[in-house]
Amino acid sequence: MRGFSFSRFIPENLPKGSFDELRTLFNELLNYTAGDANEALAWMNELDKKYHITRDEYGMGDFIEDLKSKGYLDEDRGDGGFKITAKTEQAIRQSALEEIFGKLKRSAKGNHKTSYSGQGDEKNAERRAFEFGDSLDRIDITQSIQNAQVNHGIQNFRLTEQDLEVEEMDYKTQTSTVLMIDISHSMILYGEDRITPARKVAMALAELINTKYPKDTLDVIVFGNDAWPISIKDLPYLEVGPYHTNTYAGLELAADILRRRKTNNKQIFMITDGKPSCLKEGARYYKNSVGLDRKIVNKTLNMAAQCKKLNIPITTFMIAKDPYLQQFVREFTETNNGKAFYSSLNGLGEYIFEDYIRNRRKTVR
Asked: What's the CATH superfamily of 175-360?
């Protein structure tokens, strides 16, 4: 018999009432409420009523007091509610990093080393014969002595240049990245929340770069009718607005930021539903949400070509499935000689992290 069989939903892995477990849930809810502590706590109260996530000896009031005393929550003097602190903002970024990067490690992805050997500061397992100009501190003494014993015998031990082996080093590239996030109204249309996973990925990527690659740079910009940069601390509060999609303005700002960076490796990551629908002409906005407007498309493609001339590849993470939009993204990608991923929302983080780490292995000379 064809059809669907429904059963009662029983949630798993709900908190057992400890502070740490409740705080994990609180942090996750903050991702969905764009950093609104009051709304997140209201959701937790509703969950507690239905699923009893607290204990009789440790209620929601105790949890809120602990959040305040431990520096995760402040009282908002303006409306009598609560607001999260910088400590919570960092905790949200860290939890996003652990969630996304943990998936990469489980799927055997996420190698941070470049594929180029040379002068660097991270050893790998490779060895090679000593060559003139190699630094003495890179000589593998143990292997070199073993080579001398094999080549000359223990009784007549001597160490020659031909016996020496050196440790190969992985060259660490420095990369400047601009992450562009579409905050137009279409990012929440059709019952699909696209901004929450985009926000989470941005926080995780920021935390990855700050902790693992401190010499890299990450700039985050958002684009709707206009484009503007935001700081890392603003990421938890990122929301969509009543905007069209001015992809051209986003690319123009991203290219301008990267033009001022001194690193060789530069790239743009763009998270979007793929449909440019707005341009700014002086003080006037030219908008067209019906299909793909040729005037808007041509100017956007011209900007992609300019980025190619500046040696700035654009990787587009497309989170809409419309065939005509995917066709535009293919044309856009070909113009820039970049890349495109047609990603589900669930896999967005893994795609971006894998591509970021893969790009770090490349050296633009």
From this structure: von Willebrand factor, type A domain (3.40.50.410)
What is the residue extent of each domain of the chain?
Answer: 19-84, 123-169, 175-360
Q: Read off the DSSP letter of residue 122.
A: E
Q: What is the pTM of this model?
A: 0.73
**What is the distance between the alpha carbons of residues 199 and 216, in angstroms, rounded to a whole number?**
20
Asked if 130 contacts 168 with a C-beta cutoff of 8 angstroms, the reply is no
Choose among 193, 36, 196: nearest CA to 26: 36
- Helix 86-106 crosses helix 19-32 at what angle (to 10 degrees)? 90
Can you read off the two tokens belonging to residue 12?
């798993």
Specify the 3-state DSSP secondary structure of 120: strand
Q: How many residues does the chain have?
A: 365
**Per-residue pLDDT tens digits for 298-337:** 999 999 999 999 999 999 988 777 788 888 999 999 999 9
Separation between Cα atoms, residue 36 and residue 30, nearest integer Å: 6
